Amino acid sequence: MSTSPTRDLRIILADDHPIFRIGLRAVLEQIPGVQVVAEAGSPQQLMEHLQHMACDLLVTDFMMPVEQQNDGLKLLEQIRRHFPQLPILVVTMLNNAGLFRAMLALGVKGLLSKASLAQELPQAIRGIPRGTTYLATSVEQLLLQEGDRIGAPQALSPKELEVSRLLAAGHTVNEIAVLLNRSKKTVSTQKINAMRKLGIANDAALFLYLQAQGLS
User: Fold this and answer.
1) Measured between alpha carbons, how far is 207 from 204 in angstroms, rounded to an integer?
2) Which of 177, 179, 178, 196 is nearest to 188 (CA)?
3) CATH topology for 9-146?
4) Whole-angstrom distance, CA of residue 50 vs CA of residue 81
5) Region of poorest pLDDT, from 36-45, 60-69, 170-179
6) Which positions ≥6 away from 17 have C-beta within 8 Å?
7) Measured between alpha carbons, how far is residue 108 from residues 22, 46, 101, 162 in Å?
8) What are phi and psi for residue 16, nearest 5 degrees?
9) Domain residue ranges of the chain, discontinuous segments joined by +
10) DSSP β-bridge partners for residue 36
11) Which of 25-29, 80-84, 141-145 is predicted least confidently?
């Protein structure tokens, strides 16, 4: 979203931990030219705010569990689908290169560590008007270290990629075994190997990652 030079950057912040939300707001309020217009403590509350509040930037935690659902990629995909132009900064304690790459594939404008927000958040916000993407030092180092084996589609074998794309298209392991004339055990092993290489821990994250990469 475009912002006027004479108007503060309007921010919605989201985190399910009230104490951290207080700290996050305190950091934001120290940054000149920004205004926190709403806070959310759950995915439902966040979506309601986004639908009814004008804002220029979302600063959100990655994991906000609700009713046994803690798929942060699914939440980001939903936000991106309904608000495609909204810049998003994600704050997290995660240390997973595959998930970081999946978040970047969904178009987030920054990945920040909760451990160093006071230093990183002002820098990330300064880059929003320029459209730049900010990576925390810890995130950038992990992506560089793991770049040769995690998150890159070419790291998958042809058979692993074939199985992954069929999974992303909605087929079950049993159906894929029939389609490819392989045993269920072989298909299951190829699926597990693909998820390990991508650094992805569950089926939903695998589906969203492959869709975001245009592999489904």
Assistant:
1) 5
2) 177
3) Rossmann fold (3.40.50)
4) 12
5) 60-69
6) 61
7) 23, 16, 10, 27
8) -80, -5
9) 9-146, 153-209
10) 11
11) 141-145
